[in-house]
Amino acid sequence: MKIELASSYGFCFGVKRAIRIAEEHKGSKTYGPLIHNKDEINRLKEGFNIGLAESLNDIDADDSVVIRTHGIPKHELAVLNKQNNKVIDATCPYVTTPQQIVEKMSEEGYSIVIFGDKNHPEIKGVVSYAVNPKDAFIVLESDELEDLPLSSKVALVSQTTRKPEDFLKIVNALILTRKEVRVFNTICNATFENQDAAAELAKRADVMIVIGGKHSSNTKQLHSICKRDCEDSYLIENEEELDPSWFEGKKLCGISAGASTPDWVVQNVINKIESMKK
Amino acid sequence: MKIELASSYGFCFGVKRAIRIAEEHKGSKTYGPLIHNKDEINRLKEGFNIGLAESLNDIDADDSVVIRTHGIPKHELAVLNKQNNKVIDATCPYVTTPQQIVEKMSEEGYSIVIFGDKNHPEIKGVVSYAVNPKDAFIVLESDELEDLPLSSKVALVSQTTRKPEDFLKIVNALILTRKEVRVFNTICNATFENQDAAAELAKRADVMIVIGGKHSSNTKQLHSICKRDCEDSYLIENEEELDPSWFEGKKLCGISAGASTPDWVVQNVINKIESMKK
């Protein structure tokens, strides 16, 4: 039996980069968890002495602070700088972009519309860059636009993890009612890359292993996508759940992993499957 | 029987303005017909000595030239200026806007996409304002975008008379594939104002008279819209086609007119209906 990894799986570019940055700064603290995976947080703690600050109160004056992929609000960054903390910026470049756009467009007098969840850390960071907070609005549905005091010139950005088709609904509602809408497509397609790669592999594989949290929505989605083309698709959290009977008589075993699954967990699964073949 | 005019009918703002400008410049020539209505062209000829130049060759060095609502290409304007013609600009302000946008966005390095008909005089004028003609494209369908060498920053304008829902198809196709799309909604809603006003009136009237060319698509559309709510809706070109039997026992006669129908034709129809009531 051949084992093949999906061409895209697991951590996205930004998370991989943030973990590498943290590893390069032993003894620092991350402001908020770098990733929703306790095993990976523990690995960074044990191997690199990376601490975790849940709030600004947990950060002491001499701490080196890693900003995670989501970024942080401008005023919190100002607090860290004022405290003379060493700030290590691991904000995903795909998140830095909408922050910079909001700042620039706001300076140029555009009303700002942000398509996203106002409670999400990424969005709290992005909106903080508007120079005129009263002229920046966060919406999730197009009907929320109706009552907003927007000017005739609007700049629009999206939370990086939103679906393009939902973004277009906001775009369309704005365009029919405003003179100029400056649309910045800041959606990151990492989520869809993993899904597309898993679907492609599932079409060829006769057994698929999807690795990730049983309660992770993106992992469950990967699993259901694989099921469509490969009935023998299994969702597991780690190698201990593997069952040798799954691989009997199979020719191609495909592997995919959710966005919070570290590579070493994936590697452990592959090693265990290899050993079962013997 | 009461007679009521639709709240919006006939010539749009830009055409009314262009005719007023022509009347204020007796003895001038229009470059291209001001409107697709021979009676109105004749009235301007007889009452104000307004001539008609079908091409630049018909324009002599000492002519005063009225630019019609569609505007003209930049290089033709340069020819008129070089010949020392007196140029009287009756370009509709709603058309001047996309011309200026294309010039400015093109100077700022945006690829230009114009949603419209490349053979329409308005579009020939608008596209001529791109400082880099190789980076300006005219499309009518979203699939035409696929093969265009557009940069990651695109500015989009529309022919003023296009339908908003068709414009959105172009917008949506661009947004999913470009970093920034600067959308300028340059659609003029005059056409829809006449339609909305006719529909509203047809709901209350028990006979509707729609005045306009039998082959004019916008007049035929007005007629069919009226028919939906008022079965006794008639399309006529002038007062001579009126039939007294249409008004027998009616309480409210609604009137609308196509975009190329002069007000004096409408007034002649109203006068004739008034006389029939007696």
From TrEMBL, chains A, B:
<feature type="binding site">
    <location>
        <position position="36"/>
    </location>
    <ligand>
        <name>dimethylallyl diphosphate</name>
    </ligand>
</feature>
<feature type="binding site">
    <location>
        <position position="218"/>
    </location>
    <ligand>
        <name>(2E)-4-hydroxy-3-methylbut-2-enyl diphosphate</name>
    </ligand>
</feature>
<feature type="binding site">
    <location>
        <position position="217"/>
    </location>
    <ligand>
        <name>dimethylallyl diphosphate</name>
    </ligand>
</feature>
<keyword id="KW-0414">Isoprene biosynthesis</keyword>
<feature type="binding site">
    <location>
        <position position="160"/>
    </location>
    <ligand>
        <name>(2E)-4-hydroxy-3-methylbut-2-enyl diphosphate</name>
    </ligand>
</feature>
<keyword id="KW-0560">Oxidoreductase</keyword>
<keyword id="KW-0408">Iron</keyword>
<dbReference type="Pfam" id="PF02401">
    <property type="entry name" value="LYTB"/>
</dbReference>
<comment type="similarity">
    <text>Belongs to the IspH family.</text>
</comment>
<feature type="binding site">
    <location>
        <position position="36"/>
    </location>
    <ligand>
        <name>isopentenyl diphosphate</name>
    </ligand>
</feature>
<feature type="binding site">
    <location>
        <position position="217"/>
    </location>
    <ligand>
        <name>isopentenyl diphosphate</name>
    </ligand>
</feature>
<feature type="active site" description="Proton donor">
    <location>
        <position position="122"/>
    </location>
</feature>
<feature type="binding site">
    <location>
        <position position="260"/>
    </location>
    <ligand>
        <name>dimethylallyl diphosphate</name>
    </ligand>
</feature>
<feature type="binding site">
    <location>
        <position position="218"/>
    </location>
    <ligand>
        <name>dimethylallyl diphosphate</name>
    </ligand>
</feature>
<protein>
    <recommendedName>
        <fullName>4-hydroxy-3-methylbut-2-enyl diphosphate reductase</fullName>
        <ecNumber>1.17.7.4</ecNumber>
    </recommendedName>
</protein>
<feature type="binding site">
    <location>
        <position position="92"/>
    </location>
    <ligand>
        <name>[4Fe-4S] cluster</name>
    </ligand>
</feature>
<feature type="binding site">
    <location>
        <position position="218"/>
    </location>
    <ligand>
        <name>isopentenyl diphosphate</name>
    </ligand>
</feature>
<feature type="binding site">
    <location>
        <position position="216"/>
    </location>
    <ligand>
        <name>isopentenyl diphosphate</name>
    </ligand>
</feature>
<feature type="binding site">
    <location>
        <position position="12"/>
    </location>
    <ligand>
        <name>[4Fe-4S] cluster</name>
    </ligand>
</feature>
<dbReference type="InterPro" id="IPR003451">
    <property type="entry name" value="LytB/IspH"/>
</dbReference>
<feature type="binding site">
    <location>
        <position position="260"/>
    </location>
    <ligand>
        <name>(2E)-4-hydroxy-3-methylbut-2-enyl diphosphate</name>
    </ligand>
</feature>
<feature type="binding site">
    <location>
        <position position="260"/>
    </location>
    <ligand>
        <name>isopentenyl diphosphate</name>
    </ligand>
</feature>
<comment type="function">
    <text>Catalyzes the conversion of 1-hydroxy-2-methyl-2-(E)-butenyl 4-diphosphate (HMBPP) into a mixture of isopentenyl diphosphate (IPP) and dimethylallyl diphosphate (DMAPP). Acts in the terminal step of the DOXP/MEP pathway for isoprenoid precursor biosynthesis.</text>
</comment>
<feature type="binding site">
    <location>
        <position position="120"/>
    </location>
    <ligand>
        <name>isopentenyl diphosphate</name>
    </ligand>
</feature>
<keyword id="KW-0411">Iron-sulfur</keyword>
<comment type="pathway">
    <text>Isoprenoid biosynthesis; isopentenyl diphosphate biosynthesis via DXP pathway; isopentenyl diphosphate from 1-deoxy-D-xylulose 5-phosphate: step 6/6.</text>
</comment>
<feature type="binding site">
    <location>
        <position position="188"/>
    </location>
    <ligand>
        <name>[4Fe-4S] cluster</name>
    </ligand>
</feature>
<feature type="binding site">
    <location>
        <position position="120"/>
    </location>
    <ligand>
        <name>(2E)-4-hydroxy-3-methylbut-2-enyl diphosphate</name>
    </ligand>
</feature>
<keyword id="KW-0004">4Fe-4S</keyword>
<keyword id="KW-0479">Metal-binding</keyword>
<feature type="binding site">
    <location>
        <position position="216"/>
    </location>
    <ligand>
        <name>(2E)-4-hydroxy-3-methylbut-2-enyl diphosphate</name>
    </ligand>
</feature>
<feature type="binding site">
    <location>
        <position position="70"/>
    </location>
    <ligand>
        <name>(2E)-4-hydroxy-3-methylbut-2-enyl diphosphate</name>
    </ligand>
</feature>
<feature type="binding site">
    <location>
        <position position="70"/>
    </location>
    <ligand>
        <name>isopentenyl diphosphate</name>
    </ligand>
</feature>
<feature type="binding site">
    <location>
        <position position="36"/>
    </location>
    <ligand>
        <name>(2E)-4-hydroxy-3-methylbut-2-enyl diphosphate</name>
    </ligand>
</feature>
<feature type="binding site">
    <location>
        <position position="120"/>
    </location>
    <ligand>
        <name>dimethylallyl diphosphate</name>
    </ligand>
</feature>
<comment type="pathway">
    <text>Isoprenoid biosynthesis; dimethylallyl diphosphate biosynthesis; dimethylallyl diphosphate from (2E)-4-hydroxy-3-methylbutenyl diphosphate: step 1/1.</text>
</comment>
<feature type="binding site">
    <location>
        <position position="70"/>
    </location>
    <ligand>
        <name>dimethylallyl diphosphate</name>
    </ligand>
</feature>
<feature type="binding site">
    <location>
        <position position="217"/>
    </location>
    <ligand>
        <name>(2E)-4-hydroxy-3-methylbut-2-enyl diphosphate</name>
    </ligand>
</feature>
<feature type="binding site">
    <location>
        <position position="216"/>
    </location>
    <ligand>
        <name>dimethylallyl diphosphate</name>
    </ligand>
</feature>
<dbReference type="GO" id="GO:0051745">
    <property type="term" value="F:4-hydroxy-3-methylbut-2-enyl diphosphate reductase activity"/>
</dbReference>
